[in-house]
Amino acid sequence: MKSAKERFAQDYQLALIVLVACTATIFVTPFAVYRLLEGTYIVAVTDFLIVFLCLGAAGYAWKTGDTRTPGLVIALVLTLGAAVVASVVKLDGAFWLYPVVMFIFYLTKPAIALVLSAGVLAAIVIQELSNPGSFFSAPNQMASFLASATTAAIFSYVFALRSTRQREQLVRWATRDALTGLSNRRSMEEELEIALATRDRYGAQYGLLILDLDNFKMINDEAGHAAGDQILRDLAELIRTHTRAGDRPFRYGGDEFVIILPNTDEEGLRTIAINLVSAISRNLRWGDIQVTTSLGGALLTPEDGMESWNKRADRCLYEAKERGRNQAVVDLGAGPEA
User: Fold this and answer.
1) Which residues contact residue 108 at a Cβ distance below 8 angstroms, ignoring those fewer than 6 apart?
2) To bridge 128 with a disulfide, which of 89, 135, 148, 224 should be the other Cys (CB 3.0-4.6 Å)?
């Protein structure tokens, strides 16, 4: 079980959602109590709803790991809540739009946040135009408010968009193998954890394949790293095209690749393993030399942990090499078999 510090360090969006929920609780709750004592019940109820819904969304994000839906929910709650409060207490409530505008750009997609910001500002302007003096004492005051709030929204949009793109790029660098474009070892370990959790919760079946090339070292030594890199790229493409859409291939390191196969029974594991070895031996070449692979596979059993599952597949890989290479050996739960 990861600590809160570890989860926040690994999931920036989760940290933001919890931060916003806590900030809303700390600063909105006193105003909710004050409005309740003052008798402004609509605003008091709105403030309490903002706090409860933000905390609920943050709790959901913490429990499930899903940050997209809770982020959108909090953005909607803050925007609608600010609009309701502003419509009742007028200018005093309008001041809350500034932090709301900044918060929502980091909770949901920048384009959605921009629409929400424009919507709440438009609502205030329409109400002021339909009932002059309800918000602002003079037209120039409304113009100043609108200009400053719009500026805050535009700059928040620009920075949020930039931050989102940088974060996506960092995620790609951290989880993708630069040479082949496949997911890397770090991603593989996360997917293995998901597979084990899905098995425990739903009884789902999974297969695991581990393969490496039989004569890669010789090719790499004789032809150089450029030729070796091209062979690895070609191998990655063959793996993509000869596995199912839901299968997850990874480059583990060097010329070793791992494939996680969801919803796979004994026959499916055996068929995919044999077909993949055959496709590689038919299509992968270095000049006139055939490049082959040895493959080991293991079906996930109820007793398996991550290490034991991986070891069973790895044992089958070495068994395939001992039997002459260019073949697949799988363990369906009773030991290696061809």
Assistant:
1) 68, 71, 72, 75
2) 135
